[in-house]
Amino acid sequence: MQSTPEDTTSNKSLSARLRDALRIAFLRPVPAARLSPTWPEIAAAAVLTLCVPTFYSAWSLGSDGMWAANVLPQALFHVIAALATAIVLASILRRPEGVPTLVFASLLAWLVIDTATLALWSVVSHAGERRDRGVEWAFYYLPFAWLALAVARFALPPGPLPAFRRIAIVFATLLFLAFPLAYLHPERSLWVKDWSRDAAMAEQRSARQAASGEDVFYRQPELLARELAAVQPGIPGRIDVFFVGMAGYGGQDVFMREVDAVGALMRDRFGADGHIVKLVNNPRTALSAPIASTTSLRAALRRIAQSMDIDEDVLVLFLTSHGSAEHRFSLELWPLQFHELNPDMLRRILDESGIRNRVVVISACYAGGFVDKLKGDHTLVITAAAFDRNSFGCGNENDWTYFGKAYFDEALRKTHSFTHAFELAKPVIEEREKAEKFDPSNPQMVVGEAIKGRLDALAAQLGDKN
Predict the structure, then answer these.
(1) Rounded to whole angstroms, how far apart are CA atoms 325 and 342?
(2) Which end of the chain is less crowded, N or C, counting CB atoms within 10 A of the terminal residue's CB?
């Protein structure tokens, strides 16, 4: 903190305080003795730092907002952070009496920085740049770094100071002031958006709660039984395709849409009518379709095995959802709790069913982790990504993931060969990922010798020359 003999006379007029606030914020020297704040002044500065974001929110939200006194503890978090930082800095400087001045300087600097940032953000957002993630990132994080540097500059004394203490001062402002504010992202305004007036949010909230209703609890066994009862036997002497589709993650509609679309594709191009089971985790279908769980998957595969010719027919199992680096296929429909579906579990369920000829397609991040456990002489395994890679396109607004679009909606409409479709789809996926600057997902395919011959026969039966 500056405490030079010059200009140390306390000047507590409003205009002088505003000039000092500007000087601190813009890294200009201000003698600490000139601030010499009282605690009521510190409290007034804290209130002003609340007023700036609150007035901005009231202006930008208008009648879509509401008064939220319950967020006051969050809105005052920056004051707590400033106090903690001041205590640490005073300890480094060995001037414990300087804590009130450091807190006051922090609040003055934040008042200027916050006002300038919100004013500039208002201009930029109205200019149409709000959707630019880089701009959003800069407006969110840089003010905290600016505040930390301003406080560090104020705290540094004008005379000689060991280098390690100078470094400690800068580090302390970043660690105790900038980092907590940026990381915790506390609500800073007392005027917040009233989400109860947002029709889309209300619909989404209602949909999320749909799966927890009592009617869903009692309806699900009936829905699964009805879905499985509709499976018809295959025709002797013909290779029949039986399809099981599983949309695992209920928080996004894209997985439900993919299962519906692939089921229609199997019916229209592969003659799977009467041989289709769809298991879907989505709050919109909780009263109309069986949920996707390890239990329902096991029941579906057993039913398929009873209806098919084990030696002749082919199962196409399609799983689409999120995936984890630990190779867990996400099964989620709030507030229900599901058993984990990992490579070992999926292999066990398939083997228990007794189904021999398997085409298993898994569209999820890190899905390649399933390959080693599922591969076999009678199995074709296709995954949307390698064991250590992400796959892309799972936005809620999408009809297809990148993999699903290229493999099912494009390639399998040109050929009846599951392996040739993969060869067509893989470069398309790579090109799209490259264009959007994503790391390659590196889709995987492992085909057993016995299933290869069975699928070639199926393609020929369907009139495919590939």
Answers:
(1) 11
(2) C
Q: List, in order, residues 6 or more apart from 101 with CB less than 8 Å away.
A: 1, 32, 35, 36, 37
CA 414 centroid distance within chain? 34
Determine the angle formed by the axes of helices 99-126 and 133-155, rounding to 10 degrees: 160
- Interacting residues of 11 by C-beta distance below 8 A, sequence separation 6+: 34
Quote the CA–CA distance of 399 and 256 in Å, as a whole number.
9
State pTM to two decimals: 0.61
pLDDT value for 201 = 52
Secondary structure E strands in 97-144: none
Peptide bond into 233 cis (omega under 30): no
Please provide the size of the chain in residues: 466
Per-residue pLDDT of 169-183, as tens digits, reads 999 999 999 999 998
Question: What stretches of 241-323 adopt beta strand conformation (E)?
Answer: 241-247, 276-280, 314-320
> Chain-centre distance of CA 424, in angstroms?
30
In terms of Cβ atoms closer than 10 Å to its own Cβ (0-12, 13-18, 19+), residue 254 is buried
Return the H-helix or E-strand segment holding 259.
helix 253-270
Q: State the sign of the Cα–Cα–Cα–Cα dihedral 17, 18, 24, 27.
A: negative
Q: What 8-state DSSP symbol labels residue 235?
A: P
Which positions of the chain have pLDDT values less than 70? 1-11, 127-133, 195-214, 465-466
Tokens 């996004």 belong to: 252
State residue 133's pLDDT score.
62
**Which pLDDT score is estimated for 462?**
87
* Chain centre distance of CA 92: 40
pLDDT of residue 456: 93
Strand ranges for 236-303 from DSSP E: 241-247, 276-280
